[in-house]
Records
---
Amino acid sequence: MPTQVEQGTVTLTHPKGSRVEILLYGATVISWIAPSPSGSLQERLFVSSKALLDGSKPVRGGIPVVFPCFGAPTHPEHLKLAQHGFARNTIWKFAGVVMDNEAGVSVKLTLDPIDHESISSVYPKKFALSYVVTLAEHQLSTDLHVENTSPSDSLEFQALLHNYISSPADEVSISPLQGLSFYDKTEPTEEGKAKAKVESRDKVDVKKFTDSVYENAPGRYNIVWPQGSIEIKAKGFKDVVVWNPQEEGAKIGDMETQGWKKYVCVEPGYVRGFVKLEPQQKWTGQQVLTIQSLTHL
Ligand SMILES: O=P(O)(O)OC[C@H]1O[C@@H](O)[C@H](O)[C@@H](O)[C@@H]1O
């Protein structure tokens, strides 16, 4: 059975051994196992050993879904929402298998605010979310679909797929980001955070505390370390956030000891400004994570 739904978790398996686990809570992908080019199966996502998986708080790791605000809310319609919005801590519905063939297996999860008083009480907008997760032998795709179901109001939102890519943080490099303008959230003052910088590095590392929001990014990123490489392709997400807290991570309650050494986040998003959907319009943001052979680089 390539798809199993049990106890709030959806598990997809591929004949070649790849596997993905998705919690209905937050539609959070909490595990992606995929073979390296040499064939050995490896976990590709970091989840903190202190992460709570019981639905009491967003998962520290995997791929939380950020919607409708990124970071602390700034849009007037989002002011009652928590950091990164409600999609990552709401229970989604399993809506069925979308595809199941030799190439891969794909499922859909949905979130309708009508089912959640916790959302409609703070965000009385009409919209529908669906999330399609597709597993192939060396690849994981996650597509977020947003529909404005209102007959009369527009919908403005931000969205981001907050992957935690398992990798040695002190050895990774991320490219190509050179020449892009970015906002450095590690700057101590609001003025510093709001001032655009230009990325001068050919290969970006996260050896120090990094929280950078690159805008109008190319939509294709390579994360490379001595033993491996993952490519991220993004569509609909014009920005990308590179985050690793380094020692600042010790302040995060559900971060395991030195957990920040085990991952890098390279998060495709639409987070500078807002996607604006007119009544009945739809939008899709997609990320495709692919295990790469180092010899292809
Ligand atoms: O602790 P949270 O809410 O999961 O957020 C983690 C990080 O998420 C990143 O996307 C943000 O750029 C960071 O500023 C933030 O610290």
---
Amino acid sequence: MTVLVTGGAGYIGSHMVLALADAGRDVVVLDDLSTGFDWMVHPAATLIEGDVGDEALVAGIIRKHSIKAIAHFAGSIVVPESVTDPLKYYLNNTVRSRSLISAAVQNGVEQFLFSSTAAVYGDAKESPISEGAPLNPVSPYGTSKLMTEMMLRDVTRAHPLRFVALRYFNVAGADPKGRSGQSTRQATHLIKVATQAALGERSHIDIFGTDYPTPDGTCLRDYIHVSDLAQAHMLALDYLDAGGNSTVFNCGYGRGYSVHEVIEAVKRVSGVDFTVNLSPRRSGDPATLIASADRIRETLNWSPQLDDLEEIIRHALSWENSLRLRRAEAA
Ligand SMILES: NC(=O)c1ccc[n+]([C@@H]2O[C@H](COP(=O)([O-])OP(=O)(O)OC[C@H]3O[C@@H](n4cnc5c(N)ncnc54)[C@H](O)[C@@H]3O)[C@@H](O)[C@H]2O)c1
Ligand SMILES: O=c1ccn([C@@H]2O[C@H](COP(=O)(O)OP(=O)(O)O[C@H]3O[C@H](CO)[C@@H](O)[C@H](O)[C@H]3O)[C@@H](O)[C@H]2O)c(=O)[nH]1
């Protein structure tokens, strides 16, 4: 059964394509290459360059490749950008997802995985956060994703389609075999930025906010290895294949690290003491986001293999180094 992976040329989607290809599954990738790269797509997959909001294009792909399952990773992902340009997020993450879901429903797709986010919880009162916690996003990014979850909930009540929404906490690291990693040009993610500072590609790193109500005043996040996350998606596909009901799973390890702790770990692993500036808060950042991952562990039997911050950082550094070599070869 062929799986359609939207956003498969991006960071997380490309790891899903690797997991599917490693399992011998046929894969079609739909990606507009707005932030992804064609060279990130595993050669065994068919890459179609286009927009998930192009309903006629998606309908044609579903019919041509007899698609029964869609894993929807395509989207815009930068929380602070969503604060300054919310309409971009409502268009790309909500409106275009509606077109994709419509094409899926009208062409007999049965299974749908959706990349959701811990940002749907906003400033949660509980920690760790379980799936039943109140949904109060504090950024347009989180709202744009929550609206898509709600569409999926309603649509799957009315049609045979079933979905699993995976609410990722902070995704980091790279394929342990070095085949993919985060390659975004203007990356804003903490571990990516810190590894770039360690490799001298940035002069310094800013810590955004040191007055949060956390032990050291910087934000706490639950960092999950991208390959463990891809395995969670593989299990979610098996779950839907076995007839599982539509549901939502948190994806994280259940442990938080502060921005200070992450930066210290990157310095330790890289052996480089790069410059760190203390800066004001960034808008849209909740103080603490830590997952309760009991539901996914119990329901899908998910047992992460790479739950180790230093291992995540080693893989991220190694990928960053390979990007540097790639650029040097191209120059
Ligand atoms: N990175 C994280 O920490 C994180 C956390 C929670 C959720 N997510 C979600 O995971 C998904 C993947 O994120 P990522 O980190 O791999 O980002 P990414 O930017 O690397 O990947 C997104 C991919 O989608 C493609 N794309 C964007 N809009 C498209 C469109 N309209 N049509 C077709 N392709 C389009 C891009 O070219 C890119 O290849 C996103 O939906 C994001 O919201 C990411
Ligand atoms: O140069 C930097 C970059 C980040 N941070 C801080 O580090 C933490 C983590 O930031 P970042 O890596 O940008 O991730 P988040 O803003 O937490 O968002 C990520 O994690 C969310 C889920 O938690 C996802 O929904 C988003 O898509 C994904 O970008 C935050 O406190 C940031 O303020 C810094 O201090 N300096």
